[in-house]
Design goal:
Layout: H1 12-30, H2 37-55, H3 60-95, H4 97-108, H5 112-130, H6 135-146, H7 151-161, H8 169-176, H9 189-245, H10 254-267, H11 292-313, H12 315-319, E1 332-335, E2 349-352, H13 358-372, H14 378-411, H15 414-423, H16 429-444, H17 447-465, H18 469-484, H19 488-497, H20 504-532
Antiparallel strand pairs: 1-2
Helix pairs in contact: 1-2, 1-15, 2-14, 3-6, 3-13, 3-14, 4-11, 5-6, 5-7, 5-8, 5-9, 5-10, 6-7, 6-19, 7-19, 7-20, 9-10, 9-18, 11-13, 14-19, 15-16, 15-17, 16-17, 16-18, 16-20, 17-18, 18-20
Length: 533
């Protein structure tokens, strides 16, 4: 925060109402006014800028720095990740690997409800675990469209399914970051991880039912119930055991892999009575079986990606880029001129670390895929990159403006006053605790950033009202997962991946009710747990 006072009207209610205007306005732009994402984002930036400077007295220099930082982070790492993820898809499609992947999934089952569980639930969870930051949604939405799902439908299903994995994405970072926050009550990531099981176990078991219900109603649930129970219980039980006894790091790695394997093996003995197709008038293609070697080669970009991203995510690798690390010279910390604040006693600094980025790990996978391929060469990759950039530049620009809104709200204290207002509810706070997480992810697009922003408030309030701090911080995390369904960043990434740029408002409307429904459940359940614990 770069302002002297985040309660400029000396009235918390009034200041909170003014601070909430950007969030409400952006939702209205995408839903009621049906504006394209880019226009809604620009409109909200202008209004947020006026509020931040005129009401909350954010210095113009800091506001300018927020613009620079928002665009910087929109390009690196988010834009970089989206481009690399889609480029990886295009290259594997050009090499024929993606077609073999599709055939290998179809050989497990031609029923698209089973395929939905495999891709949107299990594989989505796995990619969220190894990469996070939109990679899972982009790749899995593309996979579903290749299997016959509608573009926006595929994006919506992947966003909803991501609710099972969002709390532990990118090697458990959203929860493990808690250890660096020095929270009131000495709350640690392990305690939060253990507490999250009480809520996530219910959500994880429910999501597969919800996915099938969305595409085929209760009839679909009845016909695929054994498969739903296999994939859901395998994922839920394993994730619960890992998060409770080991910690958050492997919670999105082993469970989704095991659930994919369990469903694949189970499908050899069980197939639904009626084969369901999303496009009912399109008959399923004949099953094409490939040799084991061909299937392994087709999937190679993804298991190579897993290995490389896991290496990139280890503390040992990250330590190489720290000030005294062996690769510290590859990191440039760029101070934005004119942004030093005596209030915050710091300036805005942009860390430029290309090599250490997750997106660079995807780039390495792309280069390996090109080296292994006989069909696609470097010039083909350049052509595909040009195509990808043309398709995605507008979405990346939208994401940049969204991040500008987030930075302005954070630096001007709008986020702080919203958090403090909810915290003032006293003993009712556990009921509203997940709302803070929902707001945090809506504003920042990241469960990691959400916990960095609001976990200290959750811990402080828990200490003041005498309740379990780990419960409220876990509620902040899980509430944030429900916000990821409608986070502008997630929406922009999903629409870009399925080539539906400009239809962000449609996708938002499709996911909004599910986000609210999950949030309401998490709020009520957290309140009940607070009474019981």
């Amino acid at each position: 925060m770069f302002v002297d006072n985040f309660n400029p009207f000396n009235n918390m209610l009034l200041s909170s109402i003014v601070a909430a205007i950007p969030i409400i306005l952006f939702l209205l732009c995408l839903t009621v006014f049906k504006m394209k994402g880019i226009y809604g984002a620009i409109t909200t930036v202008v209004v947020t800028l006026i509020i931040a400077i005129s009401c909350f007295k954010l210095p113009i220099g800091i506001a300018s720095g927020a613009f620079v930082e928002g665009f910087f982070q929109g390009v690196l790492p988010i834009g970089y990740i989206v481009i690399m993820a889609v480029l990886l898809y295009k290259i594997t499609n050009e090499t024929g690997q993606f077609h073999t992947i599709k055939d290998s999934i179809s050989s497990i089952s031609q029923d698209q409800r089973i395929q939905l569980l495999l891709i949107a639930f299990a594989f989505n969870g796995f990619l969220e675990g190894v990469a996070g930051f939109g990679v899972a949604i982009a790749i899995c939405a593309l996979l579903l469209t290749q299997l016959g799902f509608g573009p926006l439908q595929a994006a919506m299903l992947c966003l909803i399914a991501n609710a099972s994995a969002g709390a532990f994405g990118a090697i458990g970072l959203p929860v493990s970051v808690i250890d660096s926050l020095n929270l009131t009550g000495d709350i640690k990531s392990m305690a939060v991880s253990q507490m999250s099981v009480l809520t996530l176990a219910i959500i994880n078991m429910f999501i597969p039912f919800l996915l099938i219900w969305i595409v085929d109603g209760f009839k679909g649930i009845k016909e695929t119930l054994p498969a739903i129970l296999v994939v859901g219980s395998t994922y839920t039980i394993l994730q619960g055991a890992i998060t409770f006894f080991i910690g958050p790091e492997l919670a999105d790695i082993i469970p989704p892999l095991a659930s994919m394997l369990a469903l694949a093996l189970f499908s050899k003995r069980f197939q639904p009575k009626h084969i369901f197709r999303v496009q009912k008038d399109v008959k399923p293609e004949p099953v094409v079986k490939h040799k084991f070697k061909s299937v392994m080669y087709a999937w190679s970009p993804f298991y190579i990606l897993t290995v490389i991203v896991m290496i990139w995510s280890t503390p040992q690798f990250k330590s190489l880029f720290e000030p005294n690390g062996a690769l510290a010279h590859l990191v440039a910390n760029i101070t934005v001129p004119g942004t030093y604040s005596e209030v915050a006693n710091k300036a805005i600094v942009l860390p430029l670390n290309i090599v250490g980025q997750t997106c660079t790990a995807i780039l390495i996978v792309i280069l390996i895929t090109l080296l292994l391929s006989k069909q696609v060469h470097f010039l083909d990759a350049c052509r595909l990159f040009k195509e990808t950039f043309k398709e995605l530049w507008l979405s990346i620009l939208t994401i940049c403006f969204i991040l500008v809104i987030s930075k302005l709200m954070t630096y001007a204290g709008l986020s702080s006053i919203l958090g403090e207002s909810i915290a003032k509810t006293g003993n009712v706070f556990p009921l509203l605790s997940p709302v803070l997480g929902w707001l945090g992810v809506f504003m920042t697009g990241s469960v990691v950033n959400n916990n960095s922003l609001f976990a200290p408030i959750q811990a402080a309030v828990a200490h003041n009202i005498g309740t379990n701090g780990s419960l409220l911080v876990s509620a902040n995390t899980v509430g944030g997962v429900s916000g990821k369904l409608i986070s502008p960043q997630s929406i922009a990434i999903a629409t870009a991946a399925v080539k539906q740029v400009g239809k962000e408002s449609e996708l938002l409307k499709m996911t909004l009710r599910y986000s609210f429904a999950l949030l309401i459940f998490i709020c009520i359940w957290t309140f009940i747990l607070n009474l019981l614990i």
